[in-house]
Every structure is written in structure tokens, then in C-alpha cells.
Amino acid sequence: MSWFAKYIKSSVGAKHIMAITGLMLVGFVLAHMLGNLQIFIGRDALNGYAESLKALGPILWIMRIGLIVAVVIHIWSAVRLTTMNAAARPVKYKVVHREKSTFASRVMIWSGIIVLAFLVFHLMQFTFGGGPFPDDFNQLQQMEGYDRHDVFNMVVSGFSRAPVTIAYVIAMFLLCLHLKHGIGSLFQTLGINHPKFNGLIKMAAPGIAVLVFIGNVSMPIACLAGWVKVVV
Ligand code: HEM
User: Fold this and answer.
1) In this structure, which residue's CA is closest to atom 15 in ligand 1?
2) What are the tens digits of pLDDT across the range 146-183?
3) Which atom of ligand 1 is nearest to the CA of 28?
4) What is the spatial distance between Cα 21 and Cα 27, in angstroms, rounded to a whole number?
5) Is position 99 within any domain?
6) Which of 10, 73, 176, 204 has a CA positioned 20 to 30 A from the CA of residue 211?
7) DSSP code of 122?
8) Is 149 in the pocket of ligand 1 (CB under 6 A)?
9) Which structural domain range is residue 165 located in?
10) Ligand 1 nearest atom to the CA of residue 168, by list position
């Protein structure tokens, strides 16, 4: 077996792969949130942004494929690491010591599974239109007198339903728990530390998680509260 195959199969390799794909996904979550926050600027800003993404054509497809590959490899590494850990400890501990583990670290698998379920719902709602609310997606079609795809009205009408907004808030809470532990672990795995900046590095994981939570829940809440309204 080549050194590379050995490395990929090892638990250190699995941890590195988990960290690198995790970093890519954090980058996407932050960029996606910053783009979506243009909902607060207005209909033309958000729709113009969606249009400029579509105009990337093949580059957008390369980014999408990269994202799908990162999600699949991230999940595959998580399964591998979990089975390796279980194999290394065939008899379960009778007494579980929890002093060192945090709530976020203990629920990593569950928060990951729920975020994945959220993603399926989210893509059905806003990307494929196969969700429980097809009328929201139909808002994407050109409205009379408005000659562009109306992502703004689709999102605002989607979030005008309380159950949808509540589901988003719960999903974002779990995403942020996942990010808090995940970002902290990836810094450790990749050996990102420096005596001068360790205080800042320690704050980065909870800081990014809280920012993502506030940024992402602000949109559904603003729409449900009627602060951002469908433009007719
Ligand atoms: C409240 C927060 C969010 C809003 C308002 C939002 C909005 C949207 C919209 C409007 C689209 C369709 C874009 C278009 O048709 O042009 C979309 C696609 C997508 N969203 Fe979100 N999103 C949010 C949170 C998230 C989160 C947290 C994730 C990941 C965990 C995510 C992952 C995706 C993905 C993967 C796509 C497909 C991208 C593509 O088609 O290339 N979104 N989102």
C-alpha cells in the first residue's frame, strides 16, 4: 500500500479530511449568509445577486460539484472515524466521564443528521421546487412587469409561515452547535495555534457560530414579523 493510501485509511488521515472538508463547508455557509443578507437591502439587490451567481455558468457548476463532493466526503469521514473509535473501544465504558466533553461535542452526529435533513428541505423549498409549498417556488417565475427571477419574493413568502420559520430557527441552532465544536476541532486537527493569537483562536469557533446563528435567523424572523414584505 502506498504511503498515501495508508494515510487516507488512518484515523489521522480521516481527521484531516474531515477538517479540510469542514473548512470548505464553513466557507460556503459564511458566503451564502453574506449573499442572502442582501434581502435587507431589497428586492433588486437580492435578485441581482442571484442573477450574477447564475451568470457564472460553468464556474457555478464547478462550485456546486465541489460542495456536493465536500458534503459526501465529510459524512464518509465522520462514519469512518465513528467506526474506528468504536473498534478501538469494543467494550463500552460503564461510567462515562463527561467533565471534558461539551454538549456540542456529544451531539455532533445528531446535529449533523438534522442539518442534512434541513438541507434536503431547504433545497426542495428554494432550489428544486418539490417541497410542501410549491406556490412559494412559483414566485420565482417572472412576475408581470418584472423581468427577472424573483428569489426575493420566493424567500419572503416562504418565511411568512410560522412553522417554516420555527423549523429554520431550530435547524440554525443545531447548525451553530455543530459549527462551534467543528471549528474548534478543525483548528486543533490542523494545528492552527500561535502563542500570540491563542486567545483569539479560542474565541473564533463560538464567535463564528453565534454570527451564523444571528445572521441566518434574522432573515426568517424579519419576514415572519412583516419587517420584510413581499413586493407586488
Ligand atoms: C435563513 C438562511 C438562508 C436563506 C435565506 C437561504 C436562501 C437560499 C436561496 C434563496 C437559495 C436558492 C438560490 C437561487 O435559486 O438563486 C438557496 C440555495 C441553497 N442553500 Fe440556502 N439559505 C439559507 C441558509 C442555508 C444554510 C444554513 C445552508 C447550509 C447548511 C444552505 C445551503 C444552500 C445550498 C447548498 C443551496 C443550493 C445552492 C445552489 O443552487 O448552488 N442555505 N438558499
Assistant:
1) 127
2) 777 889 999 999 999 999 999 999 999 999 999 999 99
3) 29
4) 10
5) no
6) 73
7) H
8) no
9) 10-87+104-224
10) 1
